[in-house]
Amino acid sequence: MYWLWQDIRFGLRTILKDRGFFLTAVLALALGIGSVTAIFSVIYNVLLDPFPYIDSSRLFGIRIHDSGSGPEQGRNWFSVPELVDFQEHNHVFDRTMGVWEKTVLMGSAAAREPLGTDLVTGNTFDFLGVKPLFGRGLLPSDAHPGAAPVFVL
Predict the structure, then answer these.
(1) What is the pairing mode between strands 99-107 and 112-120?
(2) pTM as predicted
């Protein structure tokens, strides 16, 4: 036990004797640990687990192809009646949701700017397993005809 105490005293004397070297070593270690942590966080969040959704590896987008046209032809959207029909006759997927991209004009009457928005089905937040930070998300009842419009930021 005596040798441990001697080593601790020797280390403290060395630190007090050459403070510049000690501070440089601590700074180098702090920068190294901080940079490795930041790089790992980016790699993990971008490559390994990019989406915070439930079963994000099982999400699929469907593209509609016309059998008479080439492989480059087709569309990646459904009309509303097609989506409703697909949801009613679906035997392949656990759940489905719909997203329609739409550009709206935001601002005052004098200065309007285009804003990219998404119109989504009422089950979107349940489908993705995402809870809103404040307020409430969409409910299935918000998708019924005649329901008041709902905006989620």
Answers:
(1) antiparallel
(2) 0.55
